[in-house]
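Late entry, (2E)-Hexenoyl-CoA complex.
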Amino acid sequence: MADVVAYEVVDGVAVLTVQNPPVNALSTAVRRGIVEGLARAEGDEEIGALVIIGDGRTFPAGADISEFGKPPADPWLPEVCNRIELCPKPVVAALHGTALGGGFEVALAAHYRLAATSARIGLPEVTLGILPGAGGTQRTPRIVGAEVALDLMLSGKPMPVTAKAAQPFFDKLIDGDLRTEAIAFARDLIESGAPTRPTREMTEGFSDGAAYQDAIAARRKAIAGRPEIAPAEIVRCVEAAALLPFETGLDFERAAFETCVTSDQSAALRHAFFAERRAAKFPELADGRPREIEHVGVIGGGTMGAGIVAACLDAGLRVSLVERDNSALKAGLERITAIEDRALERGRVDADTHAARLGRLNGAADMVSLAECDVVIEAVIEDMDVKKQIFSQLDAVVKEGAVMATNTSYLDVNEIATATDAPEDVLGLHFFSPANIMRLLEVVVADKTSPDTVATGVALAKRLGKIPVRSAVSDGFIGNRVLSAYRNAAELMLMDGATPYELDDAMRAFGMALGPYQVMDLAGLDIGWARRKRLAPSRDPSQRYLELGDRLCEAGHFGQKTGRGYYRYKEGSRKGTPDPEVLALLESERREKGVAPRSFTVAEIQRRCLCAMVNEGAKILREGVASRPSDIDTVMLHGYGFPRWRGGPMKAADLVGLLQIRSDLRRFAEKDTWLWEPDPLFDELIRKGEDFESLNG
Ligand code: TC6
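Prediction complete; structure with ligand written out below:
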């Protein structure tokens, strides 16, 4: 195996090339390799300067995230950075690709920095619940001041090296061959007798003390009250950089890093990072080969269909929209145009791109136009008969091997597939609204879906920039099943004495983007009502059922779009206020049912909601609907506003402890056993001393 850090001498310059694919993460071996390379170059009189560069697609994109949470191995990255900075010979970092996190910190510790013009830099540690703990919080502000440093560290977003704010970091941006230019630059340093230039000695970033303090104060205010630990620690460290001597600042940073890296939040955020990458690994990809996708058909130009079309156009695909008649077609095309116009108005695309996107779109009121499509996605109303009729017509017009997908949120994809003669080409692609923005895509694999069809679905997801998650056929797949359990828990608490407003406040405090009743008002109460009516004949009469939602719908209160739902909305406002009539309806239902209301603490509301989600998650796993617990987490993080810093419901349960969750479930199960009875998977895992993480593979 080649060394993870290659050492080569060119013309008196030692070139240290990190070669640790895919992203040159700074693993223990890489850190050792860099330190060894430094020592070798320092001890060799022939060497006048060093270059650190990355092989393959990028300069190191960070510390090796999989090493956090394990016992630390020497040398630590902060020591490596110090070694670089204290090297008596000039060290040049030559950046390309994505120089992120610890990778960028290595560059900050070097004495000179060059970058390919296409490179991007960033300090995304905050997205993992940590901070740039290899001196990044101390060195960055010394070069660029607090404003830009905090921008990089708190947003976590990469910045092109060509951005104005990035200029102070670089001595030169390179258009040509980076390695050749870096060696030439190092040669010039040797020839001119240029000194080392330790970042720790720089003071440019502190030159405007008032601006520095203002930036700190503004960020502190912006994050006040937020539950995440890392942003506050970052602000403290950047403040310390200006107040403390460098070495003391490093100690300060180290303590703050330890606080972050050992927190549950960081464990959860690291879990989320790997979970969304693991989700894309479908077993079918071992055999399945994706078919070519250039032309997509979408049937139905409503809100969801229009969003799907926009997502495809934005990804450079040709799209044919089909609607049932010309007026529906016109409305659908207008919806799509409006989405693309908004992107133009907001400056997200230029006029040429906007025109090119719409130029790839055509529409028709009959299915014949779908004959040449590689994939067709049906996005019409949730009605099995309508869908089956569409699929039988579709089967007759599409070319051989075209993938036929349904965007159903709940219906049985196996049954839909029976309407065709090619069930192996049928699968579910469950988009989330707005489909051109939401990154989650549940890829529903039916009994007869072929591996090639699955591979094509996954390839399409990636092309659209989505995170695909595999689900088997099940009423509500993964996300809507978990959501339904969450809502059942909420409804039972309402029945027993809580208000929708207490529920929403408690779940927002838990970290959900919106409370369950706010979400229902936003999505439209009529959607759930239609489903409840569909399922009414099969509802178990022994299960307690709150009728409040049905009463609201019968009164025409469908949520935000009608100005009334669980909340009241002023004309044009999305912010609701509690509605006393809703509370009166609730009280009267409780009276009718003979329920003596009791109060619920915030903690109990949160625990009941979490337990309901996790218990359903366990069922979903045991039934094989989801492939692994982390897939359920990915769905809930990306489709349902579950707080990322909790890692998703299954990770949150692991962090609470499965014994505790099972004991809570047993306690809740004294009433409404149908919802709370712990799934047998809990016993199985607890017996083996395992948790959900152990099932992630
Ligand atoms: C840090 O540096 C802290 C420093 C302070 C220390 C004291 N480690 O995303 P992709 C894997 S914190 C380990 O699909 P892309 C990834 O799991 C770190 N593994 O590729 C995947 O593995 P798989 C700060 C990593 O081209 C494979 O590489 N840095 C790491 O879409 C490909 O990844 C970051 O947060 C890592 N650091 O995007 C950057 N990075 O094939 C995190 C990637 O087995 N990384 N992997 O599934 C990224 O944002 C992106 O990977 C990317 C490339 C933009 C670099």
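The longest helix spans residues 602-622. Will revisit in the morning.
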